[in-house]
Amino acid sequence: MEKRIGTVLIRVESRENVHLLNEIISDYSEIIIGRQGLPRINNTSIISLVLEGTTDQIGSLSGRMGRLSGIQVKSVLLKNQ
């Protein structure tokens, strides 16, 4: 399957599942090109991931993260040329 470039934007609204979120991110480290975390004043944080992987890999990663309570996830994939 062909690899694509994508990004995942994560909003952490509750810290109760952050350890699980970090475990999931570690499980997919082979497709993560970059990671940036932005702490916010109002007890929420934003994490952005830049990825290169198959649509199945990226979908699996965002799906697992999206099932965590207190975590919002949105992913975007670029078209292949």
Please give a handful of descriptors for the protein shown.
27% helix; 81 residues; 41% strand
Structure description:
By secondary structure, the protein is α+β, with helices and mostly antiparallel strands. It has a single domain (4-77), classed as 2-Layer Sandwich (Alpha-Beta Plaits), CATH 3.30.70. Helices cover 27% and strands 41% of the residues. The protein contains two helices and four strands. It has a four-stranded antiparallel sheet with strand order 2-3-1-4, covered by helices on one side. A hairpin with a 5-residue loop joins strand 2 (32-39) and strand 3. The protein is globular, with a radius of gyration of 12 Å.
Query: How much strand content do the residues show?
Result: 35-45%
Query: How is the main sheet built?
Result: 4 strands, antiparallel
Write down the Rg. Answer: 12 Å
What would CATH call the architecture? 2-Layer Sandwich
Distance between the termini: 15 Å
Portion of residues in helices?
Answer: 25-40%
Shape: globular
Summed up, the helix count is 2
The third-level CATH topology is Alpha-Beta Plaits
- The CATH homologous superfamily corresponds to ACT-like. Chain A, domain 2
Q: What topology, given as strand order, has the largest sheet?
A: 2-3-1-4
Into how many domains do the coordinates divide? 1
Top CATH class: Alpha Beta
Average pLDDT confidence is 94
Q: Secondary-structure element sequence? A: EHEEHE
Low-pLDDT runs of 5+ residues are: none
| Number of strand elements | 4
Which structural category do the helix and sheet elements fall into? Answer: alpha+beta
